[in-house]
């Protein structure tokens, strides 16, 4: 986990150098990567606590590559919301397929 001036950020796990806060730093050259190479790729999560009720209209996700390989991005993911950080409800689910670059999703 980590924090910024405006939010608390956490994750299920991360590779060293790819900590959760990098998912929200606004720099498309950095990113969060979950787990280790042998980790189960499902049920990985990253969280952003806005500190209060916040309306989100869309999210942007930038695919990444490793050593010039094919783009890496989730094949399916969901956005969840919570008022207390303990009880979560799915707001939307996405199965975008494969893309390269920046993809924007309406919440």
Would you kindly provide a brief summary of this structure?
It is built from no helices and seven strands.
Number of β-strand runs: 7
Oligomer: single chain
Helix content: under 10%
Distance between the termini: 24 Å
Question: What overall geometry do the principal axes of the alpha carbons give?
Answer: globular
Which percent range describes the beta-strand content? Answer: 25-35%
**Global structural class:** mainly beta
Strand order of the largest sheet: 1-2-3
Mean pLDDT: 79
Topology:
Blueprint: E1 2-3, E2 8-11, E3 46-49, E4 58-62, E5 77-81, E6 89-94, E7 102-106
Antiparallel strand pairs: 1-2, 2-3, 4-7, 5-6
Could you list some keywords that capture this structure?
single chain; 107 residues; mainly beta; two-stranded antiparallel ribbon
